[in-house]
Amino acid sequence: MFSCKDSTITGSGGASVLGRFGVTVVLEGEAPVRLAFLSGEGTSGTDKHGAFEQQVLHYGDGAEKAAVSVSLTLRCYADMVLGFVNGRVHNEYVFGKRKSFSGLRGIAITVERIENVRGLMAIHQHNQWWNRPHFDLDPEKLPSRTLSLLWRTDTSYYRLLPVTGPVFRTDLAGGEGAAGQAEDGAQEQGFSIVLSVFQGGLLSQQGLAFVLGYGDDPYALADRTTEAALLELDYPALPRSSKKYPEVLDSLGWCSWDAFYKKVDEQGVLQKAEEFNRLGLPVRWMMIDDGWSTTADGKLQAWDADSGKFPQGLAHTVRQLKERHGVRWVGVWHTIVGYWAGVHPDSEIARSLSRFLYKAADGSLLPYPDPALGFGFWNTWHGYLSRQGIDFVKVDSQASINNYLQYERAVGASASAAHQALEASVALHFDGAVINCMGMAPENVWHRPRSAVSRNSDDFFPKVRHSFREHALQNAYNSYWHGPFYWGDWDMFWSSNHDDVQNAVLRAVSGGPVYVSDQVGRTNAEVLKPLAYSDGRLLRCEKPALPTGDCLMQDPTSEAVPLKLWNMAGAAGIVAAFHIGADEVERAGVVSAADVPGLTEGRVLLYEYFSRECRVLEKGETFPFVLRQEQSKLFVLVPVRSGGDVTPVGLTNKYVASHAVLEQTSRGGMEVIRLREGGRFLFYSEQQPMRVVANGVELQADPIGSGFYEVDCSDRLQEVWVEVELRQ
Q1: For residue 703, which of 107, 145, 373, 668 sits 20 to 30 Å off, Cα-Cα?
Q2: Positions of E strands within 476-548
Q3: Hey, where are the domains in the chain?
Q4: Whole-number Å distance between alpha carbons of 271 and 279
Q5: How large is the C-alpha radius of gyration of the chain?
Q6: pTM of the entire predicted model
Q7: Distances from the Cα of 464 to the Cαs of 439, 460, 467, 468, in angstroms?
Q8: How confident is the model at residue 115 (pLDDT cuts 50, 70, 90)?
Q9: CATH 3.20.20.70 fits 242-531, yes or no
Q10: Is residue 184's pLDDT more than 60?
Q11: What backbone torsions phi and psi does residue 321 show, to the nearest 5 degrees?
C-alpha cells in the first residue's frame, strides 16, 4: 500500500516513489515564493475508492499570521494516491488592496525526485491544440504542460495523472517550470505539479490535483487512474467505457477539407459522391468542412451555406447526396464559437439571439458560456441544420475557449459550460453524433459530458513528405492519455498519396473513424476496400490502438525500433508495425501473443496481410520481421482452439481479417463459422478438411501453409455460413 512519510510517497517495502514535496506559490504581480513546511497529521478511513491512509501536509509563509497557506492532502490506497490541494490567501484588511493567487501557475507542488526510473513516456501539450509524446528519462526535462507521466522501475509501472477539474487545470513541468527558487536562492530540482486557474483575484484554490497509481499492466493503469479521477470529480459519464459510439462513424466516410480546403462547393461535393458510386466504394457519410458557411471578417454571418458556393441552399446539396448518390449521413463543420472569430456583431444572428451570446473582453461574440444560455444558440442553429437534412457535426477550434475567456472565468468552468451547451444540442438534434476537433487541451478533454469521439493528433498533411512519421507517433502515444476518455479520430487521409498504404493500415488498427479526403478523380479504391464491408460498415477494432509494451517507452522516430500498435477484433489480437525512422536503416522487430495483453498464454495463429505469411506460434514463441523505410506490416494473432478443431482466421481480403468472424459452432460433425460477408476465408485445422460448404455450395479449400486453408466465397455479399467437415 502507498503511504506518505516525511513529505515523501513510499510504496511496498518502504521504497521511495516520489521524493520530497514542497510548495511554491505565485501571487498576482509578485515573484514566486517557496512556502515553509509547518506540520503534518495522519488519519485513515474508507470511501468509494476503498480503504486509505491519509496524510495532510501544511505549508505557509512562516509568519505568525500566515498570508498564504497551502495544504497538500495525500490519500493513499492500495494501488493509488489521490492528491488534493487547498490553498488560501489571507488578507488582513478586507477593504484595502488585496493579494490573490496568480491566474497562471498560482500553486506549484514541487517534487524533488522520482526514484529508479528505467523507462519514461510523457504526453504534453506542445501547442495550443495538440499533444505529442516525450521520452527522456530525466523528470527534470519534462516539457511544460505535461498531461500524463508514465514511468517504469525494475519492478512496476507508475503513472502520475494531473487532473483538470471544475476550476483549475493541473500540469506537470520540469526544469525552470519546476518551481521558482529555494530558500537559498538556488533553482529547485525535480519537477512540479502546477495549478493554473487562468482567472485573477481568487483567494482560494482547492480540489483534486493529481492521481498516482502503480501496477504490472501499464494499459490497465491508464484506465484505472483516469476512472479514479473521474469518479472523485463525480464525472460518471466521461470514461470511454460509459459512452456510445456514434452509428454514423462506424461506416467509411469522406471529408471535403484536403480535397477542396475552403473552396468547397456543391458541384465538387456531388462530383466526389458520383465518383464513389462509379468506383463501387461504399462511402456512407460525407462531411462538408470549413468553407461552406456564410461568413464575414472571419465571423459567422448566417445559418445557411454560402449562396455563391451552394446556390440552391444546403438542403438541396444534402438531398442530392442522399437521393441520387446513396449517401446515408451528411455532416457539416463549425467551430465551438460559431466560426473562427465568433459571431458577426452586425448579423441577424447577433440581433435575434443576443440573449444567448456573450461579449468577451476583446469584443468577440460567443455562444454564452453558460449551459442553459449557450444551449439557446446551439439549439437554434442545430435545429435549422437538422431541418436541412444534416445528421452530425464536426466542432473545431475547441481549445480557443480559454483564449476568449481567460482572466474572466476559471478555465475548468468556461470549458465545462461551453461543452455542456454544445452537447445538449448535439444530443437533441443529432443523437450525440459529433467529432470533437482541435481540442486536446485538458480543459476540453476532461469536460465534454457525453461525446465519444475526439481528434487524437495534429492534422494529416498530404503534401508534406515524411509527415506520416510525426502523425503516426502522435496518434500512437497520445492514445495512452486520450484513449481512456474517447475513441480517437486519427484524422482523414488520401488513398492516393506517398503514404497511402501506411495511412490505411494506421486507420485500420486505430479503433476510431476511418475517412478519406481525396480530391476528385484521385481515389484509389484498392487501398480503401480492405477497410470496409460492401455495405460500408468498417472492420473497426474494439478500442483505441496503443503502442505495444516493447516500444511504449521508446521513440520509434529516433531509435532503431519499429512502431508497433496493438488492438483487438473479435477473438484475435491485431498488431500493426511501421518504420517511421528518418534513416533508411531497416527496422527489425518481433511479434507474438504477448504484444496483446490478455490474449492467450497458449498457441496462436499468425497471419500477415501483405506477405500472406501464416504460421503457428507455440507458447512464448516470437515471429521476427524486418521493415524497410516507410513499410508497414499488419498481423492477425488468433488463439488456437483446443482439440484440433477448426480455428477461423477471417477474411484475408480485409486488413482486419478476424473482424468478419461472428460466431463458431459444432453441428453434426461439422464446424460451422458465420461470417459477416463473403470473401477469401482463411482457417486453420490440424486435420485436412474433407469438405467445405458455404451457404450450401461446396467450395475448394486451397492449402496456403501448414494446416492453413483458404476458400473463396467472394461472390456472396451477405452473411456466409461456412461448414467445414474434417476427416474422422
Answers
A1: 668
A2: 487-489, 515-516, 546-547
A3: 3-234, 242-531, 553-726
A4: 12
A5: 28
A6: 0.96
A7: 23, 9, 6, 9
A8: confident
A9: yes
A10: no
A11: -60, -45
